[in-house]
Amino acid sequence: MKKPLPTIAMIASERFPHHNTNTQQVVKNLNGLHHIGMDVELIIPGNAQSFFNRKYDQAEAIAEYYNVSNELKIRVLKTVPTSSLKLEKFFHSLFATIYAVFLKRYDLIYSRNKFAVLIAFFLGKKTMFETYRRLGDESPKLMRWAGRKSKSDKFIGMVLHSNVAAESMLRAGFPEEKLLVLHNGVDSSDMLPILSKIEARQKLNLDINAKYVVYAGNMQKNKCIESLVDIAAYLPDITFLLVGSKPEDIIRLTAYCKAKNVKNVMLVERLPINEVSPYLYAADALIIPPVAAPMEKFGRTVLPFKLFPYLAAGRPIVAPNLADMRELIRHEENGILVNPDDAAQNAEAIRALFLDEKMKEKLAANASETSRSLTWEARAEKFRNWLADKNK
User: Fold this and answer.
1) pLDDT (tens digit, 9 = 90+) per residue, 181-199?
2) What is the pTM of this model?
């Protein structure tokens, strides 16, 4: 006879709501688990408004900002207000974990925060850790130590966002049966209304007859967006539309375009989540910077979050031929894989794609089909089934 599924405290020490992708991943994950009926409560630090504005409802603000259910269980702990100082990274992780352990209403502590998981583990609570990073390679000594500790019954397991990340944990000595690979997902409500290419361009006041390659996402230096400018230099008849710039990104990239004498790049500021999809629908092709550094050097981009709405948009995708991308993108089936760090070859691949209408149609249809199984609800179901097997 199966035991009932555990009541879960999900601890996050980020600023909510916030544009950082990791906050979106946490909330969308929570929303998916909520929709399949799991008993999960997100415990977050209070922001400045929650401390000083009595009328402000942080949970309500989260629901609106991330376009999710307003019935999610969210508990705001007012330890220190979140800020650019990031004091909450320590204080909230400490106090939220102690709160969750000693309240005794939760059976399992689940977090992307290593500190929170360690505290819960050493306080004798069942724990789960989630990460997108290849920590086994980034911090081998620490992870080998953690791998030995992971054999304890108190450590239920680890959720990894890619096989690449899971393989790094295996190399660190984590038992395979405690590693669960769950690709992220797409929230279909973020893709509404579904628009044709012409409808999207009309909505955005873009040229209906122009050719557009679109990037949507963060543009800080470690994302190597300059590589897209380098490719654009080879394709003056195609406009590269880059969406998601902060003011400092616009200054940096505008200067780079000027230095390279590239005039076919358009920069659009950061937008709310539900305003991004028209740019994806307006694209002839969507692109992920075809460089190795975001994963190999910085370790901050592994199977990037933007890939999932890209697939759902049903447009051809151009991506670097790297191990993480190959988990979901099949060359000339649902995307085009190009050589990392080779702007000339990348440009030639895009030029060939734009000349092949049948290939564009095939890639678009197959990308859309791939996305059908990559929803947050489907991800939550896999998590629940795995946890149920552990709970027998």
Assistant:
1) 999 999 999 999 999 999 9
2) 0.95
